[in-house]
Amino acid sequence: MKINSTIFLFTFLLSYGINAQHLNGKVVAATTDLGNVSILNASQKKYSTTDKDGFFKIEASVNDSVKISAVQFDSAILILKKEDFEKDVFLVNLKLHTTYIEEVKVLQSQDGYQAGVLSKKAKTFTP
Q1: Using an 8 Å Cβ cutoff, are 26 and 56 in contact?
Q2: 20 to 30 A Cα–Cα from 54, which one of 17, 72, 76, 103?
Q3: Which domain range does residue 78 map to?
């Protein structure tokens, strides 16, 4: 009976170790601003961010859904495959997010009150 329990425990721990993997990856894009990109493993509710060079490490498994996002990029949602874990570094290509502004108006104002920033006129400390 003790041998069966030991075999069961060993098998259980071995299967747990196989499923618990870390994905080493790098975000690449047409910019050098690759730091603090959010990496969210929605399947396991794990979160990470990239370092200044775009590298990240997150706990993940095959078929997990991973969302990669940052203000300066279009978000990407990926379903991880077995091949993704076989690479030394999993590369994620992101496209820069561009916002087009039709018109910008620059208005002259004398103080914060006239610009609508302050609710009442600012005190003057110089004569």
Answers
A1: yes
A2: 17
A3: 2-93
